[in-house]
Amino acid sequence: MTALVAWCFRRAPWVVALWLAALGGLVFGALHTGVAYRDTVALPAADSSVAAALLRDAGAAGDQERVVVRSDGRAPVDALAGRLRTLPHVVAVDPGPVSDGVTVLDVRFDAEAEVLGQAVADDFAGVVRDAGVPAGASGPLAAMTAAAPGLGNAGIGLVAAAVVLLVAFGSLTCVLLPVLTASASVGCALAVVALLSHVMTVPKISTEIAALLGLGVGVDYALFVLTRYRQGIQDGLAAEHALAAAARTSCRSVVFAGVTVCVSLFGMLTVGMAFLDGIAVAAAVSVLLTMFAALTLLPALLRLLGRRMRVRPVRPGGLWTRLAQSVTARPAPYAAAAVLVVAVLSLPMTGLRLGVPGAELDPPGSVTKVAAELLEDGFGPGANGPILLVGRLDHASAETLRQTVLSRADVGPPAYLPGSVAVLTAVPRTAPDDPATADLLGWLRAVAGPDVHLGGVVATQADFSAAITGRLPLFLLSVVGISVLVLAWVFRSVLIPLTAAVMNLLTAAATTGVVVWVFGAPVEPYLPVFLFAGLFGLSMDYEVFLIARIQEEWRRGADTRGAIVEGLVSTGRTITAAALIMALVFVSFAFVDARVVREAGVGLTAAVLLDAVLIRCLLVPAVMVRLGEANWWFPRRLRSREHRSRTIPVPDDKREVLTSADH
């Protein structure tokens, strides 16, 4: 680690040139190849997938869209239908039902939405928007245009982060170095994600998530190294020696923090869905590149710009000294207060319900939102989520099933397709995201029997939620278990990683409660998975940074309480400044069009603030004081020679030191 950092410091111009070349090459490659994002959720064994396969085999292949128009006359509707027929890949435009001035047109394409691509989706949505009368569209192709990735707010978050850095450290160089490092690494990461979209399933949302995490941890990692470097300068070390000290401590912490974040993100792979795999890989690529930039690009920039950095003298005492002494002197009240706040914030989690919110929550002006509103006005709330009952049924069986379903939903006459496939379209009397609709779906599956399969957006979303929920135990166990093992290996301790895991679970509960309180139910099925993986990894950043500093002081000979005080004083300002910076980056994503990104932005903002202020600065020190020397217990046979030794000052006139293997 030290050798790599020193090499980058000595050869700063070459390192900066290599980073610029990598950034330029990756961006050029991404622009040249384009992107191939896919939002398809593949659930081959799900009942809704079986229904879709039956429809394809019966000749009902290709994307099916509904265009909804409000018009007092027929002329605007016919004109729109004519323009839709001229679009590439459109096979048929058939008139649908009419109610209260609202007309539905059924548009069929010659391929699935993911094959048709974004350009076809944009052309289709453009024709609908230019209808001259209120018109919208619903279906997989229309959904691709509801909230395209947009990273404009990331710049606002970086500007806000720069202001915090300037106030906290009083140096323009301290502002530029983390921002430049994070921007370069995230730029490379986004280009890599675009290239990866050609070889694996990468959802569109991955771009915003990769930027969200990359910018947040990128500024943090650079700030951790920069803070330790400044401490060395304050102690009178030359620049190269100060950087070497930072490499031995903070750079090591950055590596372990980055690895822990990636381990948490890769826990999403245990869910076994290509959709989530793409999000996990994209986010992990962003984190790894920001970590690598903190170890290579930052030392090079320090060589080029470090001479201009102003370093304030260290003032004894101060807020963090008083807080650290107060927490360690009275740990019980602080721990109780922190747990109480977390418990209160966690209460809304009891109302957590997984599901995909209806299109009426899509961005204003989107064709999907307009279609949802028009369908509800003309045909009732259930028209936004019809349920298809598909099976190989004769006429008598299909009619019997229809009469049964009519008791709880509106059902038209059966449609018969080649291969003796019958299709019944049941329209619920409640909205797609209403719990009553989920109850109806369960009842339909019970009364339809094993030979009838349920399809449509409501059934697909229910199967998606069920698949994620069924794999949650394995996901949680893998993320928590591997993170505990990594921390145990880093700190050679049993209790520190276990307490960290418990506290991270508390933060996860509070974060979920905040998201449910702000956005209500339902919450996208994959959001809790991403939030848990993300916040579990990010919270480990502060855990590693704080505990590494405490352990450093403990190994120098301080008792546990003294080490906690010194560690909190040394890192408190950096941790809170880093959390505020990360929160400002995250909260800037709370204003984008995509609802799930807004939820992720709010959730991660709450997570980092809770974790930095309540957990790392209050609860962790309070618990560690209570545990005392037990914090550092580790099986002797697993302890390396480096961690067996502890320097303990001997209280004599010469202040000699001894090396003890008993601590």
Mind sketching the topology for me?
Layout: H1 2-10, H2 12-33, H3 47-57, E1 64-70, H4 75-85, E2 90-99, E3 102-109, H5 113-129, E4 135-138, H6 140-143, H7 152-169, H8 172-196, H9 205-234, H10 239-266, H11 274-305, H12 319-329, H13 331-346, H14 367-379, E5 387-392, H15 395-405, E6 410-411, E7 415-417, E8 421-427, H16 435-448, E9 452-455, H17 457-491, H18 495-519, H19 527-555, H20 560-588, H21 595-627, H22 641-644, E10 646-649, E11 657-660
Antiparallel strand pairs: 1-3, 1-4, 2-3, 5-8, 5-9, 6-8, 7-8, 10-11
Kindly describe this structure.
This protein is of the alpha+beta class and 663 residues long. The chain contains 22 helices and eleven strands. α1 packs across α10, α2 (12-33) runs antiparallel to α11 and α17 packs parallel to α19 (527-555). The chain is elongated. Mean pLDDT is 82; it is low at 647-663. Keywords: Cell membrane, Membrane, Transmembrane, Transmembrane helix. It holds the Pfam family MMPL.
Calculate the terminal CA-CA distance, rounded to whole Å.
27 Å
Number of structural domains: 2
Q: Mean pLDDT, as a whole number?
A: 82
Radius of gyration: 29 Å
What fraction of residues sit in β-strands?
Answer: 5-15%
Helical region count?
22
Strand segment tally: 11
Helices and strands: which structural class?
Answer: alpha+beta
Q: What global shape is seen?
A: elongated
Measured as a percent range, the helix fraction is: 55-70%
Outline the biggest β-sheet: 5 strands, antiparallel
